[in-house]
Amino acid sequence: MRKLAVISSGTKGIGRATAEKFFFNGFDIVTCARSADDLLQLKEELEEKGEGEVFFRPTDMARKEEVLAFAAYVKGLNRPVEVLLNNTGLFLPGSIHTEPEGNLEKMIETNLYSAYHLTRALVDDMKARKQGHIFTTGSIAGITAYPNGGSYSISKYALLGFTKCLREELKEHGIRVTSILPGATYTASWEGVDLPRERFMKAEDIAEAIYAAHSLSPQTVVEEIVLRPQLGDI
Fold it and tell me: Is residue 152 annotated as part of the catalytic site, yes or no?
């Protein structure tokens, strides 16, 4: 039987690239997004090209009850989760002292709480098996503050702290935990920006790094992966 990878927000950008990478390397995929049409399109495109299966549930990962419903869907498959990629993210620009009211809450709910609740819901089976790998998609903004980063940077610093704590808590249970900290990656959020695409990293490169980290032997863990465009941050 193929192994199972759970990837939140897997229809676009880094999530989709990672879903494709694992799917074509022997994994079945469970994913979610808000658009049922996008999820169905992903399933059809991957299953047409490969031998595995893609499972999905439309989900708003900013809502705790929806995250828990997605986790229940995953557990209802009655299959062990080998890889979990907490990939849901939202970017709203603004400075702390001038950004719109509610920016912090929106990005904490989406960028941090989604990972927190989904991990808590799925980790017990990993602990019982003493096996599994949990990734979180953070950001350079979680290690380097910058103007107009505001609450986005706060949420990504918090996500890195969550991942560091998780690493310490789960090492004795045989579960590997890895933070992915990419700089500017060309995804839908950058469309329309007046910069050449060559200035950005490719989502496929981030997926390659995630897969490579997982492919190491179980006694080795890559704790953090920092990736930047060759010419530096944007």
Answer: yes
